[in-house]
Amino acid sequence: MIAAMIAGERDPQVLARLARTRMRDKHDALAEALAGMSGDHHGEIAQILLDQIRALGTRITRLDRRIGELASALPGGRGIDPGGETGPGAGAGPGAVRLNAAARLDEIPGISAELARSIISGTGLDMSRFPTAAHLVSWAGLCPAADQSGSRTRKGKKGQGNTYLRGYLGQAAIGASKTRTFLGERYHRLARRRGKTKAQVAIARSILVIIWHLLTDRDARFTDLGEDHYASRISKGQRTRNHIRQLQALGYAVTLTPAA
Predict the structure, then answer these.
(1) pLDDT value, residue 175
(2) Which one of 54, 92, 198, 213 counts the least CB within 10 Å of its CB?
């Protein structure tokens, strides 16, 4: 429709018939909206806007290419064995592929290669300015706030922090929540008890702690604990007692008989 308008088409019915996909079902509404809105100056303005979009797209492509070049030049750390094996002990032998910081952050659930580069642009590579992971978490504005006076404790105000970094970590937390990993399972456990918003902040904080360790130790690699990490750490007796209490709360008398 825009291309036809720029080319000189002024009939709103003709322009509306050029609609695609679901917009075709709104032919009458489109024709009514386009009536009186298809003068010569509208086509000129549309062409100016398209030229601006095209120019911005060219600049974005140029910047993406430059960011990729700088990311490839990041110093490498422990990587992948020549045979393709990965894991905590992989990548230390001769002939191993060296992974740089962006590639190692990309292994964290919820973080893509582009998001890893964005996070590094916010944190930098030098973690000496953050003595502990808690310092980095505080700088990003992801630590809990408390306002206490004597015996009274009120909800503290959220600090400013690094808003861009906090946004990147929020995206990573949402992505991690959709995976069958330790972080994904932790998100759902917290969301059931505390709500989705607090769960997202908690996962973003956990991801940032992982990032601090990976950037502090160039040879460190991310290893997922697995979505069954919590269940495997709970003892059989504790799980049994929890189930009994839940059934008793529903009004049942529970008698256990060991299986043969």
Answers:
(1) 94
(2) 54
